[in-house]
Fold:
Amino acid sequence: MGIDHSMNHRFEQLNCCVCIPTYNNQKTLNTVIQGVLAHTDHIIIINDGATDTTSDILETYKNRLQVITFPENRGKGVALRAGFARAYELGYEYMITIDSDGQHFPEDLPLFLDALEQQDPRIPLLLIGSRNMDDPSVPGKSSFGNKFSNFWYYIETGIKLQDTQSGYRLYPIKEIQQVKLFTTKFELEIEVIVKLAWRNVAVRNIPIQVLYDEAERVSHFRPFKDFTRISILNTWLVVLTLFFYLPKRILGTVKKKGFKKFWREDVLRSDEPPIKKASAIALGLFIGISPLWGFHTISVLTLAAVFRLNKAIAFLFSNISLPPFVPFIAYGSYQVGALVMGKKMDATLDIEKIKSGAAIFESLGQYIIGSFVLAIVVAFISGMLTYLYFSYLKTKTDAIDV
Structure:
């Protein structure tokens, strides 16, 4: 079967190539290559140290394809990184990866091109093929692993996808060059899509066909070892999300829109009930005032997730502990602490009076107690007031709609 020149021309216009990483898939490799060649000859193949007849198969295509050969198996992550680097060297802007075990259909390649042609050229695109995980041929471990991966991807990026584990993907090459990748095995496929999302690359699923033919297919996924590596990676990515990328994303949204527009669009016009909005504000203020220095961000985001509150609102109001407000919070906490402990309030806060270790410890305890009490009072009052405010606005809006 010859190449479809019109399809090949589309690959050239979109500056896109296909990458096939392979390791000991001699039964299916030739069929996959022939299927891809029916659509384009812009192909990069990574021979990841295969010990079967892979080298002999690739020898027949040496004048038609870009072939990279590793002397020893180094892992799919390393193979993909080599493919990204070669695609960048050759000047491609996008690269579609397809597995060599026969589970993917080369006939679906035009779907990726269709989506790429419809994409705003100003916004880089990452496409992940979405398999029908209810298909009887899909192994149970693949279905479970996909649900597990989808959940953590949503936690790390805020993006809901149906399939995050499919190897049938379209990658934006230039953006990948700006990302530092560290993993070397299957977990790289998670690392790269999370880090691209953090760089504001558009991430979407597109439906694809899939075939799990156990008679022909050879899988190199090691359930225990690879699942452990993926779990460790997700743990690290969640830490980065909570401490850096999620706060950065929220503050970026507020900065881009401005506080007034953010308040109007993301708070006032959100579909959440008044109690949810008010609770998110109360939680943010409570955490921001409490003496959990160094743990404010992770605390407010974790609790917002547990109670299913708006994380953006809660985080935003937890920033009441920004440097300009800290002296006022500390002063108020100390005075409230004195009130709670039945002591006389010291408006001057003369630290010269605090000389002994016992006095320092007592003053610190007074501050901590006062801080929690002040946090509770401010959160309660603010929660009640904002609840009444949001309820009034909702009633007014409902009356106008009627």
Remarks:
- The mean pLDDT is 87.
